[in-house]
Each structure stands twice: as structure tokens, then as C-alpha cells.
UniProtKB/TrEMBL annotation:
A Pfam family the protein falls into: Malic_M
Cofactor note: Divalent metal cations. Prefers magnesium or manganese.
Organism whose genome encodes this protein: Phascolomyces articulosus
Stated name of the protein: Malic enzyme
SMART domains: malic, Malic_M
Length: 610
């Protein structure tokens, strides 16, 4: 086994940025306000003093307060006498982190560091992004969510529960910050592939927002993680005396939608410019909420739309890796296993791209290139008799979105292995949340028909992936182009070669999207932003990396990826007329975006009374 740590492609990312840099903005009138006045800030003004400064994670510098600051902020004597700068602090926290026995202990350690000193937390996270994203994000965040009620230490974010109905527009003022740029909200109904985790789902918005800050450069004080606690249908949580969420089954139907409506009204009235990311909502609520709000407020659904962007990027990059034209997706034969929020979202993105490339005349023609398999087999409308239980009838109950994928020339509910035999797909996508759904037979069949079969088991965490990297390379004699939702190590093929793994996760797309939307103050998140995100990311790997099966820069490079994506999203926002921030004439968008990214360095603290 070989870890995939040294896979930096910063040079490639930089050259992509240079291309984006060429573009200047001439539309704004002269002498308008700078795009984001906060980016020039060199000091932090606070009305706190004494222990309130030391115990505020957004202000605290731990041991690094200067003598002058200790005087100014009345903290002299409240911290150890020696001023110790960040490099020493980083040494200490990294040693302590490495001494933790297991990933969950590391998660707890990092959470408590975040609760003490966010600047130091983000410095550490950015320095070790590849290693630590596997702790604060998938896969460990999955385990932490399952155990959240047992490991609870301190609250972060906001909870809106069924008992808060009628009070939400006042409650939002309990949040201490007037400026909120990004809100990630979940109802905990489908946390990764782990099912309904109720209020424990809070760890997901927290983890996503940590990546928004570390990779996307959003300021830590401008992010808000939220759980909508509408109850849970998870019996073991309901029966657990330590569970911290509401102890009733989930609200549904009209009650559910009016609850969400009250919350949306409350947050948009206090923070009208905030970007809202819907996260881990179960199908069909995920789609219904997106349809209801995407044209009214600045929002998107991560699982549907940014997963679509990164998966499309992966497929486009794989076309180049296989020696095909990137501008012709329509020759691909794609089997998508899992027809829920993410599966349908990903396939819609592929269809959008096929249509945009102009190689198919209609969406209907594009739908013919995708075969969608759910837990009853190939999507279809008809009842069929279950061979194993002849008395039982199975039926796919499809909605309008899923029905687009029905094929007339194949039997409904055809099992995956047979679908693969008949279709001979070049690409297989797994978005089921169910481990092991990709069978050896299916992957071996693909390998018989394609020199480099594209195998993407995208479900999270790693224990829920549709197959492992080892399996994919074993079943394809090392020829697979492999990408998974959670990280897998490269696989030693035993002949001096390694099967390269890629992480295909929306963490490559949402930080840059959020950055672009925030910097341009876009009033809407548009479909083109996702398509362009995919195009940018699809072109970040070098030719030699692609040849090896590496589709994207490594996770360590997520900040550069976000910069490239954010710049392009900004351009799209101005081109489409949804940007509301004003630029100075002649400003380079990439410079503006880069300049607005949060950098975790200590700045002088100044006390100013109310
Ligand atoms: N890599 C990434 O960036 C992302 C990965 N995902 C993963 O995708 C998975 C699904 O997410 P959602 O679509 O939001 O969930 P969902 O619950 O909306 O959809 C899951 C679908 O899989 C189907 N399914 C269940 N068992 C199956 C089986 N044995 N064979 C075929 N289909 C089966 C279900 O019937 C359902 O339609 C999760 O594990 C999640 O972690 C989701 C978003 C992003
Ligand atoms: C990555 C992600 O958003 C998910 O698995 O739900
Ligand atoms: Mg998600």
C-alpha cells in the first residue's frame, strides 16, 4: 500500500489560475466601494476584555498574546508569562494530536482545539489538510455523528427544534454575529450513508463549514452550522437516555414543510445575503426543498448539485485519461446505482453537460446514455414477480425525475449484474449508501469490454463504499480508473505499479462555490455555476497525472482548487447578472477572490468599549 500524500499539482492549478487571471472586469463605475472592505483588515477590534478574550475561540491566541495586548486587554497574569508564537503552538498541538490512539479521539481533540482557538485550529488544518480532513470530515465525522450524543462536550452552531415553532424569527438573534456568509443546514435524515441520525447530524454542518473556512477561505466568524431537529425515526437514538435531540418521530408532510419555511424566513430576514447550503436531507425532501427555494433565495443542495459538479469533473477528467475528447460525453455509457438525491442530481448534471456540449439534440436523447439502478434493480414502472418469493410483488414507485431514466428495451427491475452485461457501461457510479453493491461480476464484465473501466463507488463513509479500491483494481487487473467518496489509499499492484485512487467528494466543489458566491454577493446560485465548477476541476490534473489515473489534485491542494473554482463562479455570477458586489475598475477577479480568502494568522487585538 502507498499513501497518496505527495501528489501535489500546485503548478498545474497555478497555470489554470493564470488563464482565469486574464479576465478583467470593466463593468463597474469608477471609484465604487471595494468588493469586500473586510479583506483589508489588519487588526481585530473587540469590546471584550480579560477572560472573555481568552475564552473566546475567535479572539484567543492562547499563549501568543503580546505584552502590549496583555496590557490593552487586561489579561496580564491570566496566561503563562512566556509569549509563545504560533509555530510552537502548532508543534504542541500536533504532538498531542499524534498521541491520540484512534481517529475518534483525534476528532474530539480537534473539536476542543476549535472550541479554544479557531485561528490555531485552522492553521493546523490547512497545514495537514489531507490527513486531517479524514478526521473532521469523512470518514471519521460519520463515526463522530453516530456517537455525537455520547461524546458531547460543548455546543456549536444553532438547533431549531419542533418546540421552537413560532419562535424562530426571534431565536435567530441569539446568534452573536451580525455577519453570516454561509449557513450549512441539515435535518439529519440521511447522514452520509449512515441513515437517520436526528440531531446528531450537527457534526456534518460543522465539518462542512470547517472546510469552507480552511479550503474556501470563508471567515470563521461568518459561518453558521444548523440542525433542524424535526425528530428522528431512529429507534436506538430515541431509546438512548443520552440522546440530545427531540424524542418524537420525524415531522412529515405539511408540518415538515411549514417548519422549514419558518426557519428560512427567519434566517433570511436576519441574514439576507447569506448562502444557505442544504445538506443530507433525505429524498424526496431534498428535491422538494431545492425546487421550492432555489429561485427565491441564495441556496443550493450540496448532495444534489455540488456532488454532481465533482462527479461530472471526474468523468470529464477520465475521458482525457482514457485518450478521448473531453468535449464529447455523449459516447459514454453510464450506469448509476442509487436513484436518490445524489444519484439523480449527478445524472442531471451529466445530462446538462451532454446538452451543453451540443452532441445530443435533446435531453431525451441524453437520458438514453444513462441506466439508473435502484434497490429493485433497473428503474421501471411495472410490477414484477420476485423469483425468490413468487407471492411477493415488487414495484418501483418512481417520481417524475426518476421516470426520465426508464428504458423501454430492457426489462424493469433487471438486477445490476444483468444490466451491466446488457449495457456494457464505460462508467459505473455508486450512490446508494450500501456497502458492497458493486459485485465482482459487474466490475469484471466492465473490464472485459473497456481498457480502463471507470469505477466510482461514491458512498460515504469508506465502510459504506459500493466497493473498495483493492476490489476495483483486483477485478480489473489494475486497469480501473477509481474514485471514491471517502479516501482510500493507492493500491500496490505487485508489479511495481500502483492503482491510483481519487477522492471524488463534494468537498472539491462546495468551498469554491461558496467562495465565489460570497465574494460576488450573488443573489442566486445558478446551474451554470455547477457546470463551470466541473469544467474547472476537470482540467486541474496534468497529462502525466491523468495517464496514471489521477483525476484531481490531492486533498492537500483543496485551497487552490477552491480559488480556481471561486474565481470562475464569480465570473459566472457577473456574466449572469446575479452578482451584487461592486468591483473597482480593472480589478482582476482572481486577485479579488484570493485577497478575500481568510488566512489563519494572529492579528493585533484592539479593545474598544461599547
Ligand atoms: N461522494 C460524495 O461527494 C457524495 C456521496 N454521497 C453518498 O451517496 C449516498 C446516497 O446519498 P443520497 O442519494 O442523498 O441518499 P438517498 O437516500 O436519497 O438515496 C439512496 C438511494 O439508493 C437506493 N438504494 C438502496 N439500496 C440499494 C441497493 N442495494 N442497490 C441500489 N440502490 C439502492 C435507495 O433506494 C435510494 O434511492 C450516501 O451514502 C452518501 O454518502 C452523497 C452526496 C455526496
Ligand atoms: C459527502 C456528502 O455530502 C455525503 O456523503 O453526504
Ligand atoms: Mg452530504
Amino acid at each position: 500500500m502507498l499513501s497518496s500524500t505527495c501528489r501535489t499539482s500546485s503548478t498545474r492549478v497555478s497555470s489554470c489560475l493564470r488563464t482565469l487571471n486574464i479576465r478583467r472586469w470593466y463593468g463597474a463605475p469608477p471609484a465604487v466601494q471595494s468588493l469586500d472592505p473586510r479583506r483589508d483588515k489588519t487588526v481585530q477590534v473587540t469590546n471584550s476584555r480579560g477572560v472573555n478574550v481568552i475564552h473566546d475561540p475567535l479572539l484567543s491566541k492562547g499563549t501568543a498574546f503580546s505584552i502590549n495586548e496583555r496590557e490593552r486587554l487586561s489579561i496580564r497574569g491570566l496566561v503563562p508569562p512566556r509569549q509563545q508564537e504560533m509555530d510552537k503552538q502548532l508543534l504542541r498541538v500536533k504532538r498531542n494530536l499524534d498521541a491520540c490512539d484512534n481517529p475518534l479521539d483525534k476528532f474530539i481533540f480537534l473539536s476542543s482545539l476549535q472550541d479554544r482557538n479557531e485561528t490555531l485550529f485552522y492553521k493546523l488544518l490547512i497545514q495537514h489538510l489531507e490527513e486531517l480532513s479524514g478526521i473532521i470530515y469523512t470518514p471519521t465525522v460519520g463515526l463522530a455523528s453516530q456517537k455525537s450524543h455520547s461524546i458531547y462536550r460543548r455546543s456549536r452552531g444553532m438547533y431549531f427544534s419542533s418546540q421552537d415553532r413560532g419562535a424562530m424569527s426571534a431565536m435567530v438573534y441569539n446568534w452573536p454575529h451580525d455577519e453570516v456568509d454561509v449557513i450549512v443546514v441539515t435535518d439529519g435524515s440521511r447522514v452520509l450513508g449512515l441513515g437517520d441520525l436526528g440531531a446528531n447530524g450537527m457534526q456534518i454542518p460543522i465539518g462542512k463549514l470547517s472546510l469552507y473556512v480552511a479550503a474556501g477561505g470563508i471567515r470563521p466568524r461568518a459561518v453558521l452550522p444548523v440542525v433542524l431537529d424535526v425528530g428522528t425515526n431512529n429507534e436506538s437514538l430515541l431509546n438512548d437516555p443520552l440522546y440530545l435531540g427531540m424524542d418524537h418521530p420525524r415531522l412529515d408532510g405539511e408540518e415538515y414543510y411549514s417548519f422549514v419555511e419558518e426557519w428560512v424566513t427567519a434566517v433570511t430576514s436576519r441574514w439576507p445575503n447569506a448562502l444557505i447550503q442544504f445538506e443530507d436531507f433525505k429524498y424526496p425532501h431534498a428535491y422538494n426543498l431545492l425546487n421550492k427555494y432555489q429561485k427565491k433565495i441564495t441556496c443550493f443542495n450540496d448532495d444534489i448539485q455540488s456532488t454532481s459538479a465533482i462527479t461530472l469533473a471526474g468523468i470529464l477528467a477520465s475521458l482525457k485519461a482514457r485518450g478521448f475528447q473531453q468535449d464529447d460525453l455523449s459516447e459514454e455509457r453510464i450506469v448509476c446505482v442509487g436513484a436518490g438525491s445524489a444519484g439523480v442530481g449527478v445524472c442531471e448534471g451529466i445530462i446538462d453537460c451532454m446538452v451543453a456540449q451540443g452532441r445530443v439534440r435533446t435531453r431525451e436523447e441524453a437520458y438514453k446514455r444513462i441506466w439508473m439502478v435502484d434497490h429493485h434493480g433497473l428503474l421501471g414502472n411495472n410490477e414484477i414477480v420476485d423469483d425468490a418469493q413468487p407471492d411477493a410483488k415488487r414495484m418501483n414507485e418512481l417520481d417524475e425525475r426518476q421516470s426520465c431514466y426508464i428504458k423501454q428495451d430492457l426489462p424493469d427491475c433487471l438486477p445490476l449484474d444483468q444490466v451491466v452485461e446488457r449495457v456494457k457501461p464505460s462508467v459505473i457510479l455508486g450512490l446508494t449508501g450500501i456497502p458492497g453493491v458493486f459485485t465482482e461480476k459487474a466490475i469484471r464484465t466492465m473490464a472485459q469490454h473497456h481498457e480502463r473501466p471507470v469505477v466510482f463507488p461514491l458512498s460515504n463513509p469508506d465502510t459504506h463504499a459500493e466497493c473498495s479500491a483493492e476490489q476495483a483494481f483486483k477485478w480489473t487487473d489494475g486497469r480501473a480508473i477509481f474514485a471514491s467518496g471517502s479516501p482510500f489509499k493507492d493500491v500496490d499492484l505487485g508489479d511495481g505499479r500502483y492503482g491510483r485512487t481519487n477522492q471524488c467528494n463534494n468537498s472539491y466543489s462546495f468551498p469554491g462555490l461558496g467562495l465565489g458566491v460570497t465574494v460576488s454577493r450573488a443573489s442566486r446560485v445558478t446551474p451554470n455555476m455547477f457546470l463551470e465548477t466541473a469544467r474547472v476541476i476537470a482540467n486541474l490534473a496534468s497529462r502525466s497525472q491523468l495517464k496514471e489515473g489521477i483525476l484531481f489534485p490531492g486533498v492537500q491542494d483543496l485551497r487552490n482548487v477552491a480559488l480556481a473554482v471561486g474565481t470562475r463562479v464569480c465570473e459566472v455570477a457577473y456574466d449572469e447578472g446575479v452578482a451584487t458586489a461592486k468591483l473597482k475598475p480593472g480589478e482582476l477577479l482572481a486577485d479579488v477572490v484570493r485577497g478575500s480568502m481568510f488566512v489563519p494568522d494572529y492579528v493585533p487585538l484592539v479593545h474598544q468599549p461599547y
